[in-house]
Amino acid sequence: MQRLLNRPQDYVDEMLDGIYLAHPTQVKFINEDKRCLVSSKTKEGKVGIITGGGSGHLPLFLGYVGEGLLDGCCIGGVFQSPSSMQILDVTKEVNRGAGVLYLYGNYGGDIMNFDMAKDMAEMESIEVRQVVAGDDVASSPKGSENKRRGVAGIFYAFKIAGAAAESMLPLAEVERLAQKASDHVRSMGVALTPCTIPELGKANFSISDGEMDLGMGIHGEPGIKVDKLKTADEIVDEILSHILPDLPYSKGDEVSVLVNGLGATPKEELYIVFRRVANVLAEKGISLYNSYVGEFATSMDMAGMSISLLKLDSELKNYLSMPCSTPFFLQNQI
Amino acid sequence: MQRLLNRPQDYVDEMLDGIYLAHPTQVKFINEDKRCLVSSKTKEGKVGIITGGGSGHLPLFLGYVGEGLLDGCCIGGVFQSPSSMQILDVTKEVNRGAGVLYLYGNYGGDIMNFDMAKDMAEMESIEVRQVVAGDDVASSPKGSENKRRGVAGIFYAFKIAGAAAESMLPLAEVERLAQKASDHVRSMGVALTPCTIPELGKANFSISDGEMDLGMGIHGEPGIKVDKLKTADEIVDEILSHILPDLPYSKGDEVSVLVNGLGATPKEELYIVFRRVANVLAEKGISLYNSYVGEFATSMDMAGMSISLLKLDSELKNYLSMPCSTPFFLQNQI
Q1: Residue A100 — very low, low, confident or very high, per pLDDT cuts 50/70/90?
Q2: If you count Cβ atoms within 10 Å of the first and of the last residue's Cβ in chain A, which end, N or C, has fewer?
Q3: Is any Cβ of chain B less than 8 angstroms from the Cβ of A6?
Q4: With an 8 Å Cβ cutoff, are A18 and B56 in contact?
Q5: Final residue belonging to a domain, choices B159, B183, B207
Q6: Mutate to test the interface with A, among B4, B27, B78, B213 (most CBs of A within 10 A)
Q7: Read out DSSP for A1-64?
Q8: Chain A contact for B25, CB < 8 A?
Q9: CB-based contacts of B238, cutoff 8 Å, min separation 6
Q10: So what's the pLDDT on residue A203?
Q11: Residue A298 and residue B267: Cβ atoms within 8 Å?
């Protein structure tokens, strides 16, 4: 295991120590629990937005807490859900009288804990709405979208909902826009290597050299096909052949593209991938608006990438183009 | 080779295609040569700053071209210098009547080509100054600093010089500040895995499992010691034991810290590393100002990281805190 760490059981907490030390003016924790992270910037009367999930996916989840994005985040151990009590505590902290939106990915443990926290928050008279993002077309067929896993495309829901809340829209509107963004995104990825769980000291699944797992999830959930490793262009074409008909995305549409590195794949390769995505979309008459290339949702040392497409309309474009600032993600007004 | 690419010989040009497609409003190329990249934003009368070097280090070098940073960049093949003619062409393009600064790392091929370009530019009556950055304390002992390789610490010279030029300082001042920033930075890294050269299909050096190469360069230049892989804290302590006495950095100093991932190392681990750096500096009475944690100078799929420290004074702090905006690096005014 060629990793930089101390005791594996301290992996998450030492990572968190580093984050608070590196970004002392932007984020802080509450209740002496480092896994309950909130933004240092608050705005009275603004809808609070909370996300959460397992560790091991930086900048997901806590990297999106900050101005113009989210207000708080709870994280669990590597690939483990945070607890409902942690979520409740962060809910109380970020509620500024306008209610709180829970916005997270479609995983059983997270749903259970966010649901429980919502019930408890409502007993304390805090209005809570939930949007559960599921954008991975490889995880369940069209027609059963509600079974799809949330992967990197959740970035778009964060961005749109965060800008909506920052614009002081009411909870029902922030919820509607988060759901709309989520409904307008499709993603799919490919894994070239497994990732190492620090406490195990090894991967909990394997990918042979010279092979790839098309559609694999960010926790190593099996994809739709194990195949020999193809060229970047062939892989992009195959992924787009699943994504494009699913929404569908058609001639005349305008999209934002996110090419997301899973952790160990160099930026050079992400741009090689982006090039092909852009060329295929151009051939199909689909135009590009403000693309993103980099690491947005990772699996530690997993090699591979995912492609997400957000289908835009003027409303989504407006919120996508607004500025935001977190320790991990900065955007100027477009 | 678990990499995402098409024909290895197209690696650099397809990567460049992706960059121009993803960031069409921020960067462009000249002379139909994609390896000659310039900023789309120009400012009459501003000193132009150019960097360059081999490919395979994103966001180095071309990722630092943009507002408040650099004006142009020439890149060669993977780990290869650009040509003097390419540098000359970019020099002519970014010269706005105030002269041009060449700011790049201390590697033989780059020095030869930038030197030749400088001579040719001067024959065309363009004033050119050069600052060659060498921050890697592992590459040559104290007393022969001019033999040191330039690694991630060059980011600080880019940032300071870029802000100085953006402030419309004259060439001699931009040169002085670039040199001052470079003189105030020390870096050292550790490699945990080699990197794969796409055209070779394999690494051109090796690191055994369970071992590390302390002080290895970003092209795989041998470091100061091959050792068994230690804990993150032990590695940080050893690196700082080389960096701190070298400048030296002492009690009462204020520094900016850059923890740079070499490509395949997860952000989680970079924060574990940052935590230890911050704690050691605090123990020594050295205070922190605006730290950076992420990928700033990589070697494709190499695992490992480097630590850079910039010793600040009020002048450097002023330019470090100014805003800048490139496709790869965005900073708001601090």
Answers
A1: very high
A2: C
A3: yes
A4: no
A5: B183
A6: B4
A7: -----SSGGGHHHHHHHHHHHH-TTTEEEETTEEEEEEES---TTPPEEEEEEEESSTTTTGGG
A8: no
A9: B214, B230
A10: 84
A11: yes
Q: Report CB contact under 8 Å: A229, B265.
A: no
| pLDDT given for residue B162 in this prediction | 98
Report the relative pairing of strands A33-39 and A48-55 from DSSP bridges. Answer: unpaired
CA of A180, closest CA in chain B: separation in Å? 25
| pLDDT class of B204 with cuts at 50, 70, 90 | confident
Q: Is A57 a catalytic residue?
A: yes
Q: Are residues A205 and A326 in the same domain?
A: yes
Predicted local distance difference test score (pLDDT) of residue B205: 85
Residues 6+ apart with CB under 8 A from B228: B210, B211, B212
Give B129 to chain A, closest Cα distance, Å: 30
Is B273's CB within 8 Å of A301's CB? no
Residues B315 and B203 in one domain: yes
**Which residues from A are below 8 Å from B256, CB to CB?**
none
- Percent of chain B scoring above 70 in pLDDT: 100
Q: Which domain holds residue A205?
A: 185-331
Per-residue pLDDT, B203: 84
pLDDT at A45: 97
Task: Report, as an integer, the average pLDDT of A226-242.
Answer: 98
Contact B5 A232 (CB under 8 A): yes
pLDDT in tens, B226-271: 999 999 999 999 999 999 999 999 999 999 999 999 999 999 999 9
3-state secondary structure of A232: helix
Q: Does the annotation count A219 as an active-site position?
A: yes
Average pLDDT over residues A179-200: 96
**Which residue among B18, B193, B300 places its CB closest to the CB of A271?**
B18
Distance of residue B235 Cα from the nearest chain A Cα, in angstroms: 9
Domain identity same for B127 and B275:
no
Q: Domain boundary at A183, A211, A228, which?
A: A183
B107: closest CA of chain A, how far (Å): 22
Q: What is the complex's ipTM, to 2 decimals?
A: 0.98
**B223 falls within a domain:** yes
Q: Are B179 and B227 found together in one domain?
A: no
CATH code of the domain in which A32 resides:
3.40.50.10440
* B303 interface with A at CB cutoff 8 Å: yes
Which pLDDT value is given to residue B202?
86
Q: Which of residues 191-230 of B touch A (CB under 8 A)?
A: 192-193, 207, 209, 212, 229
* pLDDT tens digit sequence for B281-318: 999 999 999 999 999 999 999 999 999 999 999 999 99
Q: What's the distance, CA A329 to chain centroid?
A: 12
Is B17 in CB contact (< 8 Å) with chain A? yes
How many inter-chain contacts (A to B, CB under 8 Å) are there?
178
